[in-house]
TrEMBL record:
<feature type="domain" description="Uracil-DNA glycosylase-like">
    <location>
        <begin position="46"/>
        <end position="224"/>
    </location>
</feature>
<dbReference type="InterPro" id="IPR032579">
    <property type="entry name" value="Phe_SMUG2-like"/>
</dbReference>
<dbReference type="Pfam" id="PF03167">
    <property type="entry name" value="UDG"/>
</dbReference>
<dbReference type="InterPro" id="IPR036895">
    <property type="entry name" value="Uracil-DNA_glycosylase-like_sf"/>
</dbReference>
<protein>
    <submittedName>
        <fullName>DUF4918 family protein</fullName>
    </submittedName>
</protein>
<dbReference type="InterPro" id="IPR005122">
    <property type="entry name" value="Uracil-DNA_glycosylase-like"/>
</dbReference>
Length: 226
């Protein structure tokens, strides 16, 4: 099976039916036919081979990026303008802007995705409704109870993805705080990778360090390329 065949099989089978803490709902973009059409086009375009790839792990899908397109850190605008995969979804995510500037530094999506596979520590996302009725992203580590509930799912999902053809010398963790702590402790227990390398999360860069964005693009490039 090609890398893309394995990814698509994995995503189509993703399901989580455990009871979640009150107010938290699962975000599973792969249940929608429209999203799966985009996902199939993307992975068949960039992963239809048997190459080994380095792994980058984000947190979990958010509503405006992977929650809308099914592709980590790829919002509809980047999907149309950079990947040339058409969609009528009109959403924009700052994290996607940063990641695609990193991708540009690699020479474009063909070269980047030939070497790198991006996923999430938890491949399904979560949302919660605030007091004003607004739906917000919720991270797997935002409550100890949720983290405990989803840990077996995280373990099972990561094991499956390692079989795609992942370089297990290093894994790059997006987020230097709670995501890194969870993944680093998780790796010490299960010994999936020789090293977990933390990188500042794209959202953090875009929100707090935008003036020094090039520094972080260079940091990503050096870490992943070498």
């Amino acid at each position: 099976m090609t890398f893309s065949d394995q990814i698509l099989s994995f995503l189509k089978e993703l399901d989580f039916n455990k009871k979640l803490p009150k107010g938290i709902k699962i975000l599973n973009p792969f249940q929608g036919e429209k999203v799966m059409q985009l996902v199939e086009q993307f992975y068949q375009k960039y992963y239809a081979d048997v190459n080994q790839r380095k792994l980058i792990l984000g947190i979990n899908p958010g509503r405006l990026g992977a929650g809308a397109t099914g592709i980590p850190f790829t919002d509809p605008k980047r999907l149309r303008d950079v990947c040339e995969i058409q969609t009528d979804i009109q959403l924009h995510e700052p994290s996607s802007v940063f990641i695609y500037e990193v991708i540009e530094a690699f020479g474009g999506p063909e070269k980047f995705y030939d070497e790198v596979y991006i996923s999430s520590v938890c491949p399904l996302g979560f949302v919660i409704e605030d007091d004003k009725g607004r739906i917000k992203n919720y991270n797997y580590y935002d409550s100890a109870k949720l983290s405990q509930i989803v840990t077996p799912f995280i373990l099972k999902s990561l094991k499956k993805q390692l079989d795609f053809g992942i370089d297990r010398d290093q894994v790059f963790c997006l987020g230097t705080g709670k995501n890194f702590k969870f993944l680093n402790d998780f790796n010490k227990k299960h010994r999936f990778f020789k090293e977990v390398i933390p990188l500042e999360h794209p959202r953090y860069v875009m929100q707090y360090k935008s003036k020094s964005k090039q520094h972080y693009i260079d940091k990503y490039f050096r870490a992943i390329k070498y």
